[in-house]
Amino acid sequence: MALKSTVFKAELQIADMDRGHYGTHAVTLARHPSENDERLMVRLLAYALHASDDEPALAFANGMTEMDEPDLWRKSYADEIELWIDVGLPDEKWLRKASHRARAQLLYVYGRTGETWWQANRGPIERLPGLRVVMLEPEQTAALAALAERSMRLSFTIQDGHIFVASDAGSVEITPREIKAVQAR
């Protein structure tokens, strides 16, 4: 018998002073049996960093189960992928394939082996012009994982590139580090 995904519900209160976005977003997401709390919370963080009131809305995709989908995406009404967001340490070939399908592509690298992965894959990934890569520090994402609950109320305050995440379970400061910017085409 196959293991089932675990459903998580989160209310995200976002005050993003860097982008001028302020709002509350209710999201439901499934944690795949092979996914841990850290990855789930990094997906939520990515959602908070790119959420907006614009339509069509940012959505969680099936990146864990469908090989041709990211973790999050924003698609146009014409079904074109406007924004493709992956989290983790994907294969460079996968990123290259995705770069041909989306207008903008973003990767959040996290985990204890993130730096090692980056050094091993840096050359071919730096040649992908539309890809932006952001590194998240392992201690910070581990602390973020400690906030995971099946039903969460999270407050995200984003200012000057710093992210403050708070809940009833505690709080954490995250300082993402851009390691690859989008190249001019």
So what's the overall shape?
globular
- How many strand elements? 11
Any low-confidence stretches, pLDDT <50, length ≥5?
none
Structural class: alpha/beta
Structure description:
The protein has about 180 residues and is of the alpha/beta class. The protein has one domain: Restriction endonuclease-like alpha-beta roll fold (Roll), CATH 3.10.640. The protein is about 25% helix and about 40% strand. The protein is built from 4 helices and 11 strands. Helix 1 packs across helix 4. The radius of gyration is 16 Å and the shape is globular. Strand 6 (about 100-110), helix 3 and strand 7 (about 130-135) form a beta-alpha-beta unit. The model has no long low-confidence stretch (mean pLDDT about 90).
Per-chain topology:
Elements: E1 6-16, E2 21-31, H1 37-50, E3 59-60, E4 72-75, E5 81-87, H2 92-99, E6 102-109, H3 114-126, E7 131-135, H4 138-145, E8 151-159, E9 162-167, E10 170-174, E11 177-180
Parallel strand pairs: 1-8, 5-6, 6-7
Antiparallel strand pairs: 1-2, 3-4, 4-5, 7-11, 8-9, 9-10
Supply database-style keywords:
185 residues; five-stranded mixed β-sheet
